[in-house]
């Protein structure tokens, strides 16, 4: 039976992850659930908050080596919090599944460095559909290449803090890699004040933040006379949580190293 620590357990994804782990009770259980020290959910049974039934795990404010017994930690929190959890898992030799987005280059490098000591699966989007889309985008970019204009549009709920989404950036990176472009140089974020025609080699990003949209992404490859659009729409956070559960089972068997959701899915 795998023991799973869920950090940020009172968050939108945290609660969904608790629900997903309870749906896999034959193979895993939540053994630790953390929330911020000032969260009203501190000390509450996380099952009551997430699935309306106690599971015998009260939330704590911090991971502590004498009390926090787990095999794999799932982290969907904030970049700063993830850095703290990374140091804890390195020191205690535990595996991690990281879904936090908005990580800086420096923070991504820190994850890569720690992955020489422990197994880490880090993905800006854990849904099977989005990871399939990444493969489709590689193919589309290979076929349509520099002949088309490429634009990435994403929409998320009003509470999302980072923009563009980690998924949109990942989509841009995948396409830029195939086309031998550097996303840092070719990305255009919004076009206010633009006074020249579009440069074919750019990749444009548009961000929408509204209401309770779980996560929509569309990549448009537009030429003169036709366009191809690859779209993914998430309608439930359970799609991300189910991917994280798959990753937990997979990474529990792995040696140290940095892995992607594509590795988990064998894509
Ligand atoms: P949220 O704000 O609802 O939840 C984050 C929770 O983490 C909050 O409850 C916050 O209090 C808690 N937290 C922050 N620091 C903490 C700490 N040090 N210890 C314990 N708890 C802490 O946000 P969300 O919508 O659940 O998203 C969380 C992250 O996951 C975001 O970066 C989001 O973009 C990302 N996300 C990734 C995927 C994916 O598939 N990879 C899918 C959805 C969301």
Q: Spatial order of the strands in the main sheet?
A: 2-1-3-4-5-11
Helix residue percentage? 25-40%
Total number of beta strands: 11
Bound small-molecule species? nicotinamide-adenine-dinucleotide
Shape: elongated
By CATH reckoning, the class of the largest domain would read Alpha Beta
Q: H/E element string?
A: EHEHEHEHEHEHHEEEEHEH
Q: Beta-strand level of the residues, as a percent range?
A: 15-25%
The CATH topology of the largest domain = Rossmann fold
Identify low-pLDDT runs: none
Overall tally of structural domains: 2
Alpha carbon gap, first and last residue: 27 Å
Structural class of the secondary structure composition? alpha/beta
Integer-rounded radius of gyration: 20 Å
CATH superfamily of the largest domain: NAD(P)-binding Rossmann-like Domain
Biggest sheet, open or closed, and with what strands and sense?
6 strands, parallel
Count of helices?
Answer: 9
- CATH level-two architecture of the largest domain: 3-Layer(aba) Sandwich
């Amino acid at each position: 039976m795998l023991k799973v620590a869920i950090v940020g357990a009172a968050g939108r994804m945290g609660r969904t992850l608790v629900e997903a782990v309870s749906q896999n009770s034959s193979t895993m259980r939540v053994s630790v659930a953390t929330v911020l020290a000032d969260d009203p959910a501190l000390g509450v049974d996380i099952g009551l908050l997430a699935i309306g039934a106690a599971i015998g795990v009260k939330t704590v404010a911090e991971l502590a080596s004498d009390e926090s017994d787990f095999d794999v930690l799932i982290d969907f929190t904030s970049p700063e919090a993830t850095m703290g959890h990374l140091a804890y898992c390195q020191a205690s030799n535990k595996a991690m599944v990281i879904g936090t987005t908005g990580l800086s280059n420096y923070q991504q490098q820190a994850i890569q460095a720690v992955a020489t000591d422990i197994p880490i699966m880090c993905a800006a989007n854990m849904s099977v559909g989005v990871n399939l889309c990444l493969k489709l985008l590689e193919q589309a970019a290979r076929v349509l290449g520099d002949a088309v204009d490429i634009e990435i549009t994403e929409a998320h709920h009003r509470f999302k803090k980072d923009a563009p989404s980690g998924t949109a950036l990942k989509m841009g990176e995948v396409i830029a890699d195939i086309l031998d472009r550097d996303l840092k140089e070719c990305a255009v974020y919004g076009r206010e004040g633009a006074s020249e025609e579009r440069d074919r080699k750019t990749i444009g990003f548009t961000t929408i933040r509204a209401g309770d949209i779980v996560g929509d992404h569309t990549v448009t490859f537009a030429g003169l006379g036709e366009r191809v659009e690859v779209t993914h729409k998430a309608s439930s956070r359970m799609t991300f949580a189910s991917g994280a559960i798959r990753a937990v089972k997979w990474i529990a068997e792995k040696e140290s190293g940095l892995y992607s959701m594509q590795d988990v899915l064998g894509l």
